[in-house]
Amino acid sequence: MLFKWTDPAFEQLIANLGYLPVGFFAAISAVYAANQNQIDQRTRRAWQFIALGLILFVVGDILYTVLELTEGIVFPSIPDFLYLAFYPLVFLELITIPSHLSAAAQRKT
Fold it and tell me: Please, what sign has the CA dihedral across residues 41, 44, 46, 52?
């Protein structure tokens, strides 16, 4: 009880909302990386897969929070499918990203 600073009824809401800024930042960063002009098409496609996976994960977090506040969570639910969609997209990113360096300047570093 020493570190309790909120009503226990709001603890789950605060815990759910705590992940959203991190997820938004990760998704926005991945979209930004996917839209860079100086990367080749294959690397851009890999970043698009990771961005889409992160966006679906964040939408899953939002839906989970809304469902938990309104009608409660059942299993399986729509957020579960959005969370699970993240993993195949990241796998596609891993097999799509170039495995060799393309420019001579990159090979030196």
Answer: negative
